[in-house]
Amino acid sequence: MKKHFILNLLLNLGIIFLIMSGVAAYRSGNxxxxxxxxxxxxxxxxxxxxxxxxxxxxxxxxxxxxxxxTKIKKGQSKxx
Length: 80
Prior knowledge:
This protein is mainly alpha-helical. It contains two helices and no strands.
């Protein structure tokens, strides 16, 4: 999970940096840099969405495993 947290932080910083550079490129009239900033920003937003979906599925998977283990332990304690 630590790896996902750090990756999320880096993606957020990259998105913020690209927004700032896109605004600066627009103000200076440099459309090439603006286009690159928009394109790379879209890729980073896509990667962030994929990361969030991956983390969500991992959390759900861990919760279901934990629920199964608690049911098994409760069933064993009733038998004894």
